[in-house]
Each structure stands twice: as C-alpha cells, then as structure tokens.
Amino acid sequence: GFLTYLIINCTHLLVLGEGARRLHVSAAFNAKPKVAMSRFEPGTSISYEKLHENIDIVRKRLNRPLTLSEKIVYGHLDDPVGQDIARGRTYLRLRPDRVAMQDATAQMAMLQFISSGLPKVAVPSTIHCDHLIEAQIGGVEDLKRAKEVNQEVYNFLATAGAKYGVGFWKPGSGIIHQIILENYAYPGVLLIGTDSHTPNGGGLGSICIGVGGADAVDVMAGIPWELKCPNVIGVKLTGSLSGWTSPKDVILKVAGILTVKGGTGAIVEYHGPGVDSISCTGMATICNMGAEIGATTSVFPYNHRMKTYLNKTGRADIAALADEHKDDLVPDKGCKYDHVIEINLSELKPHINGPFTPDLAHPVSEIGAVAEKNGWPLEVKVGLIGSCTNSSYEDMGRAASLAKQALDKGLKCKAAFTVTPGSEQIRATIERDGFSKILRDVGGVVLANACGPCIGQWDRKDVKMGEKNTIVTSYNRNFTSRNDANPATHAFVTSPEIVTALAIAGTLKFDPETDYLTAANGEKFKLEPPNGDELPARDFDPGQDTYQHPPAESGSVMVDVSPTSTRLQLLEPFDKWNGKDLEDLQVLIKVKGKCTTDHISAAGPWLKFRGHLDNISNNMLIGAINIENDAVNKIKNRLTGEYGGVPDVARHYKANGLSWVVVGDDNYGEGSSREHAALEPRHLGGRVILVKSFARIHETNLKKQGMLPLTFADPTDYDKIRPDDKISITGLATFAPGKPLKGVVKHGDGSQDIINLNHTFNENQVEWFHAGSALNRMKELQ
Q1: What pathway does the UniProt record associate with this protein (predicted)?
Q2: 186, 79 Cβ separation under 8 angstroms
C-alpha cells in the first residue's frame, strides 16, 4: 500500500528533530492510489525542531512575545541571528519550504528558470493545471476540449517539470489551492505560490504567500527569498457561527472594514475563542479571500479542526507532530498586533459584496433595497458556486441541503446554476455521496475541476455583450468584466449557501432568513438553514490519479519550444541600465481610478498567450481608463497625432526609441499575482510606473523585471501630470535605499514641475535595476 504522509521540505527548514521522529518516504508514485493520499518527494522531511530553534533565537533577540505569523515567518529566516527585524520596515531573507505554480503563471516561471541555466529545482515544487480550461458545456466535455486546445502548453509544462524536478498535476486534477490544502499545506510550513490566492493554505496553519514567477524562480534556484517584514493585523473572533452565517461572511465583513488596500503590507492573523467554531476548510476560505484586502497572507492558529482535516486527508503523522509542537503553532500570550478588529460570530449576519469590487459589503437582508436604489439589476441571471474559495466538501454539502429542500417542494433554480468542484478528490467524493446529483437535479451544471468562470474562463451565451445583468458567485473577486468579459455584468460575491438560495429565488430581493418561496403546489415555505458535514463520514474518494512525479533520471527528457509557436516563446534578457538618468519619458497613459492586474493584463481569452511574451503584450493596459477621454484602449500617439490602442502606441514608441512611463492612481496593480502585468510594460519599452500607491505583489514584480515602480511623495502631484507630458527621472547615479528620486515634469507649453518621488527598493533590488532584471542579476552571480 501507500504511505499517506505528506513529507515536505528543503534542507533549510521545518525539520522534525531526533532521528526517531523524522519521517522519510518512498513510494511507487505512478500507480493509482487506493485511498486519498498526498504526493510528496522521496527522501525529504518536515522538521519542527529547526523551526523551534529559529523562533527561540528571534524571541530572545526581540525580547517579546511573538504572533503566530512572526513565529512561522521568522522561523524560516536564512539568518535568524543576524537578520534585522522591524515590522513594516526591513526586508527579510527567507527560506521557503515549497513552491507551487498554476499553469498560466508556471509557463513564464519555467521559461525564466530555463533561462537561469540551473539543472534542477532546489526545493520541492509543483505545477497545477487549472487555469486553461474554459467553462462551456460541462466538466467532461470542457476538459476534453482543453486538453486538445492546450496540448502544446501542457506538454511543455509536463516535460519541463520532468526535466527540472517539478511535480506535475495534470488538467482535471483540480484548482491549485485545493490541491495544496489536501496535500502540501501543514501547520508551520512556509510556501510560496504563483497565484494571489495562495493564502488559502492559511486555513491549515500555514504561511502561504502569493508571488510572481520571478520570485518562484529565486526559491527554486535555492536563493533566499526577500519579503518586506510584514505588519500583523489581528482579527479576534468571539462567539460561534450558526444558521445561515458561514465562514465566507467573516472575510466579506473584514473586506468591508479594511477595503481592498487595508491589508497591504500585513499578515492578517485570526485568533480568539470563535476560531474553534470554524472548520479547517472554512478557515481556508477566509484566508483565500484575504487577497482581496491586499494582505500579504492570512493565517489561523493550529487547533483540533486542523488535526481532524489532516487525519482525514491521510496525514495523521503530521497531525501528531503538530500536537507535539503546538506551542510554536499558536501565538504567544501577550503578543501585540499592529491593529485589531473584533468580530462576534454569533452576531455576524450573511453578507454579499459588490458589484465591481469585493469590498463593497452589504448584509444579505439589505441587498435588494440597495440594488433598487442604485439601479442594479435585481434578476439573478446566473448563480455560480465552487472555485478555489468555496469548493470544499462542507460547502457542497450545505449547498446541496438547500437544493434538496427546493426539490422536495417541486422547485428548481430560476437562475442558471453552475458548480465547480475544487479538486478531483472533491468531485469524486460529492459524486459518490449524492451531492452532485442533487445539484444537477435542481438545475446545476457541474463544470470541470478548474478555475473556470472565476478567472474569466467562461464561454457565456445567455446575455449579449454590454447587456446589463446580475450574477452571484461564491468566488473571491468581482472586478469589472472579470468573470465573463462583459463590463455591464454586476457580479456579487457571497457564500455558496446564499448563491444557491438566490439562484433558487432568481432575485437579489430575497432574504432566505425571512422571505418565503412558493412551492409547486402553491404553498408558501421558508428554506431551513443549510447544514452539511465538515468532512465525509467515509474516506475521501481520490478519483482518478492525475499526478506525474518527476523521474529520478531526467537527462533524456527534452523540452521543446518551437520558434514558430504562438503559445510559447523563449525569453531574451532585458537590457541593463545604461548608467544615466531616464530622460524625457513620454507619458503613455495617465490612468484614471482603479487599475487592477486585470486592467493591465486581462485574463480570459488572453490566458492562451501566457507563455508567449510578445503575443500577450497585445493586451497591455487595454482595460485601463484613459483620463484624457474616459475611454479604454484609446490613447493619443504623440509622435503621429493619431489615436490607437495602448499596446500599439507603446510598440510604436519602442520602435522609434522613445521610452515611456505610466501614471496611475491608488493601489495600482491590485488583484492577481500575474507577473505579465510587469513583463509586458518592460517588453514594450516602459521604464517607470508612477502612481499614488502600489499593491504589494505588483510592485515586487515590476522591480524583478528591471522597471522603476515609483510613488508620488505628495499624492496630489498626480494632478500635475498631463497626458502629453514628458517626465525625466533624476538622481539614478546615486540610487539607494531610502533615498528619494526627482521627477522633472515637462509640459507641452514649455513649463515644468519638479516633484519628489519615493521608492521601496533595498540594496539587492537596486542591483536588479542596474542589471536589467532580477534574472540578469542571478546570472551575473553564477
């Protein structure tokens, strides 16, 4: 049989300690498992002994109690003795245990790793095929079509994984974050993933952080990974969840309090007596959507709910070890948070957030009236449950309990209804236990185990482009056009239970706690509160075996990238800094208002070009609003006087030797971790992104690619920039940490403004700029 232990680590950290308690594993990986199991690397081990040793060193140095976030992060320091530690100020050099990459971002990450010239990854790493499967008909058909359409990319990722020692989860295996929770996350681990919702693993007491591909390459290359020392926001939970209120409502409430940028630069740490009323997968839901408040990550303390989940997913040995080392997996008594929010779960009501932003929070009881007042469509066209945020066994069971009530009264959903299982294990188990049949019978379509509509992979046919309509989802993000590319779609995020209830009712003007439905026989009835088991009574059904372990010997494995491919393109190094100030950068576009990574590098149909930098650059900033004319993808070419698309004008400037700058507003680059939003401007001749403030991941991604992400020292200087200006960046000869730069803004009428510009570069990052990119710098040091 199979050992069902998850053994994860690199040589640097999280080790068990005394030989007798150290776990080593080998197994026949290519056989189909008979029970739910974790995939792992033979000969690696987890160790809490090293974690404890590092925590002890840092606690004595700082001479104060530590939060849980600090314990795990500082426990992974490359140099716990010498590292300068100051929340919100210093940069930490860390040794993560593991890297995980989804297929859309893995393409560029693996292309960069190939460019590094290294033979193998230095830490356990995996690729997960979840982003390239478009929802169209149903799970089986859509998966079959995706395998055909994306064969070139899947073959590249599978062979690159085999060549360089990276595990490969095939299409159909499930969404990266659910796979991580089921297999790779565990209390105390430090994991980075090339997706912004990597924090999902915090539900299992892990510090899991979303990063760009270049960060992943650093870790896979064995280089210490840099992270600005996070502040820690405490969320104290009291009371207990019950009735219609779900774990999703906790993060919907927090998002309403902190907004989309309130968590920037901080880890959100949940604690308090209310924690124990939330399931492990419920905690994961809360951590997952913490990405929408800009948080570095979110985490819960180790407790019996996590132990139960570990046991049920074949990791009882890890649960036993976590029990032994529990003191290192919970916050110290008396630890201090930078900010504390208190939420009484007993008083928390079901919430629904949106439209167009995930922090516009409303109690479900009020959304109908608010929608009427604002002119939002009341009819719910589609309800969508699942996604990486809410696709657990518990989520599906609670949704099915509501669907069953409707069916018993002769009702089906008035809205279209889709169901996205989070993993093959979840799909197989809810199929076995009857949930899928109930959800199909009520009108649902079970989609593939993939991201699907959550990331815009949805071939939607029920409304015309530009038609105003409402959808409700259990997803995490609802930016304009995100789900279906239709800017008139009003998307609301809520719990799977509320989505199901609203899909049955067909309207936003329905509060399931107080309102009645009409049965097929004319009888009025209320839905009883949802119920569902936290975990299956029987073991999980693992379904089909979808994991490819890298071979021990990979010398004969070939990784081919055709020079004529439209999907994949080998990378050329970016040019080094020429040693001079950046003179007369043309303002390419002055962006008005919110500018997420969806605006900068759209997903949906563009996902197919994620491995081809030149082709995907044709979507650069096509969703951003030009302040000059309130239009999207329409800017004036200052060389020709004609209007054109943003990528077209950028290419024309580059061809004519004219470097350019983008000017933006607050929280620029919020949302996804996609580094294409940084690669594309660099590829098309951009040198500077100048904004009021940045989202964390995007700012780092820009630095990695040799761009200059700068912020106005005085945010009102944004108003001084005109769309036809040229800007010179001066002071680069003495570019150094903590030393502002100057911007000389040259207006068309001959006048000038001189403004102060801030940056957050440290010494290593300045070297990235000098070298032209972090990858260039890595090669210089080899």
Answers
A1: Carbohydrate metabolism; tricarboxylic acid cycle; isocitrate from oxaloacetate: step 2/2
A2: no
Alpha-carbon span 43 to 549, nearest angstrom: 14
Catalytic residue among 325, 362, 477, 482: 477
| β-strands 741-746, 726-730 pairing | antiparallel
Q: Is 3 a residue whose pLDDT tops 70?
A: no
Reported as type and span, the H/E element at residue 233 is strand 231-238
Per the annotation, the verdict on 21 as an active-site residue is no
Q: Would you place residue 673 in the very low, low, confident or very high pLDDT band (cuts 50, 70, 90)?
A: confident
Instruction: Using CA atoms of 700, 233, 309, 322 in order, give the dihedral in degrees to the nearest 10.
Output: 90
User: Strands 231-238, 339-344: parallel, antiparallel or unpaired by DSSP?
Assistant: parallel
DSSP letter string over 448-464?
-SS-GGGGT-B---SS-
Angle between helices 763-771 and 774-781 (to 10 degrees): 90
**Catalytic one among 98, 674, 676, 777?**
674
Residue 24 has pLDDT above 70, yes or no: no
The two counts, helices (H) then strands (E), for the chain are: 23, 32
In the prediction, which pLDDT does 19 show? 28
User: Is residue 719 annotated as part of the catalytic site, yes or no?
Assistant: no
147 in Cβ contact with 141 (< 8 Å): no
- Has 130 been annotated as catalytic? yes
Catalytic pick from 69, 672, 693, 773? 672
Q: What is d(CA 741, CA 318) in angstroms, rounded to the nearest whole number?
A: 50
The dihedral built from the CA positions of residue 493, 494, 500 and 503, taken in this order, carries a sign that is negative
Q: Is 674 among the catalytic positions?
A: yes
Catalytic-residue membership of 601 = no
Range with lowest mean pLDDT among 21-35, 48-62, 497-511: 21-35
- DSSP annotation of 443 reads T
Report the candidate in 400, 525, 576, 399 with the shortest Cα–Cα distance to residue 473: 399
Which residues have CB under 8 Å from 316's CB, separation 6+? Answer: 310
Q: Which of 4-13, 447-456, 579-588, 730-739 has the lowest mean pLDDT?
A: 4-13
H-only helix segments in 26-116: 48-62, 68-74, 103-116
Phi, psi of 180 (to 5 degrees): -60, -45
Is the backbone peptide bond immediately before 563 cis, with ω within 30 degrees of 0? no
- Which single residue is written with the structure tokens 């279906």? 484
Given 195, 215, 433, 511, the catalytic residue: 195
> What strand order describes the sheet that includes 98-102?
207-210, 190-193, 98-102, 125-128, 167-169, 547-548
Residue 548 and residue 760: Cα distance in Å, rounded? 40
What is the residue-averaged pLDDT of the chain? Answer: 93
Which helix H or strand E contains 565, and what residues bound it? none
Distance CA 326, CA 336 (A): 19
CA distances from residue 357 to 331, 348, 595, 625 in whole angstroms, order as listed: 32, 21, 12, 16
Q: Is 38 noted as a catalytic residue in this protein? A: no
pLDDT digits (tens, 9 = 90+) for 59-80: 999 999 999 999 999 999 999 9
Residues in the chain: 782
CA distance 166 to 283: 28
Contact 587, 627 (CB under 8 A): no
Q: 130, 215, 511, 717: which one is catalytic? A: 130
- What six digits make up the tokens of 262? 């309130």
Contact in structure between 399 and 425 (CB atoms under 8 Å): no
Catalytic residue among 131, 305, 482, 638: 131
Residue type, 651: R
